[in-house]
Amino acid sequence: MQPQIYKSEVFDMACRQFDIAADLLGLDPSLYERTKYPKRCMAVMCPIRMDSGEVRVFEGYRVQHHLSMGPTKGGLRFHPAVTLGEVAALSMWMSWKCALTGLPYGGAKGGVCVDTRDLSFGELERLSRRYMQEMISFVGPNTDIMAPDVGTNEQVMAWMMDTYANHVGNSVPAIVTGKPVSLGGSEGRREATGHGVAYLIKSYLNDLNIPLDEATVAIQGFGNVGSEAAVALNAFGIKVIAISDYYGGFYNAGGINILDAVAYVKAHGSLKGWKGGDSISNEDLLILECTVVVPAALERVIDENNAPKLRCRILAEAANGPTTNQADAILKQNKDIITIPDIFCNSGGVIVSYFEWVQDLQSLFWTREEVLNKMYKILDRAKIEIENQKKKLKCSRREAALTLGIKKVADAKAVRGLFP
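The line above is the sequence of Glutamate dehydrogenase; the predicted structure tokens follow.
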């Protein structure tokens, strides 16, 4: 019976993906619900004093999907649309992602319902610290390790690490990942997700025998992941012709000046007002005629309405859950489009978060080149496993990735047994 506390479209979507994969695997009924649903969730109220003196209370959540293979791992997002159901779905996807890539983690996710554009720097700090304070009983370097996500960054992780350290009385760098290098962060972590996306795009372009200098890419979402993917694609000689963020997008058939766009966002906080191309909506960007479309923003942006209109050869899912179940069924019938599924496509971030955690535990650190090369090797291995599973089960690439991840979690639960 599906838990009602998580009821939402995005949670239903994650559950449906699980059901399809579990049916393909012939999953043991005794493991079905244990593997599918989150182990536990926390809902907290975070009161903070605003700069005006007013006290406001923000809703916060954390969902830990399973702890059968190690501590849980997952990001923390600050966004006005955060719900418990969304956080639960994201924790499920993180579980399959970690298992798929061979990381010793279960999935987790956290969120606070807030628009960070409405907060001052001091208010953001107070909210970050309060959230960590409320979660201290449920997190730890061997229990649950947080990382940045939508609306959070290295600075937020630094505040959270400091809050935890003040509670336990000593520095614990491994309590969060994605923090500044000066506090035990890893070289290459900031760009890892985007560079992983770009690396896989290059790999599948090579499989299709499409020359890199003839490929064109449209990226919806120019936050950390989208912008870093654009920078890496640019370095590979692949032309990015469209980018967008919350305020809208820009199209330039001759190629976007990526470094100029990145500098503009760093100076102004968004693409709003940039002059680097013709205006284009987020909706129209997704159906541009191009080689690769990269949804790098939020969930469920590709649905049954626009899926038939996609005109790309590769759909690289840099965001989590960008394609609805209905759209996925449409794309499964379209043999002209290769989908690089989210739990594989954007896994570079958690892979390098794992590296950061390992480095913190050892107090031994690697160079950026070592970090990224280790990440590429894991992505290459996972790609081979996915392509082999796709042929073996005669299924879609998404189903292949999901079955690989889910089976590893189910196997771990089966071997450990059920505690009385």
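Note on the example: The mean pLDDT is 97. The first strand starts at residue 40 and ends at 49.
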